[in-house]
Amino acid sequence: MSTSYTRFKKPITKINIETKGPHDKVTVWVNHQNAGTLVVDKGTGKEFLEMFNSDEQVLHCYAGPTGPCVMKDDPNISDDEYIISEYLDVVTVGEVLKGRTLVHTQY
Predict the structure, then answer these.
(1) Which residues of 24-61 are buried (b: 16+ CB within 10 A; e: fewer)?
(2) Which of 12, 43, 78, 99 sits 20 to 30 Å CA-CA off 105?
């Protein structure tokens, strides 16, 4: 099993999806500032992530021979940068790297 991670389209730096209540709430950060919250139909919040996905892969995780491994595509990516998994989960680079071995870096 493997998972690819991509960046948000610029200037978006973070998105939070809240699924509690009768609607989903999609909060967007632009240049690290809260730009606002969209209230959308219940169950559709994650669909909005696809609109903000840049398709620029920055990390790829896979099961290596000695455990979980990560291939890092951008040498300058910060551990606190938010990224999107191919399964539409929003995490930081640091969260992905934690407990995994960096085995190869592409430049």
Answers:
(1) bebebbeeeeeeeeeeeeeeebbebbeeebeeebbbbb
(2) 12
* Neighbour-count burial of 23, counting CB atoms closer than 10 A to its CB (0-12 exposed, 13-18 middle, 19+ buried): middle
Please tell me the distance from the alpha carbon of residue 36 to that of residue 39, in angstroms, as a whole number: 10
Q: Which among 95, 102, 31, 27 is positioned nearest to 62, based on CA atoms?
A: 102
Q: What letter would DSSP give residue 90?
A: E
Domain boundaries, the chain: 2-105
What does the chain come to in residues?
107
Contact 84, 6 (CB under 8 A): yes
| pTM exceeding the 0.85 threshold for the entire prediction | no
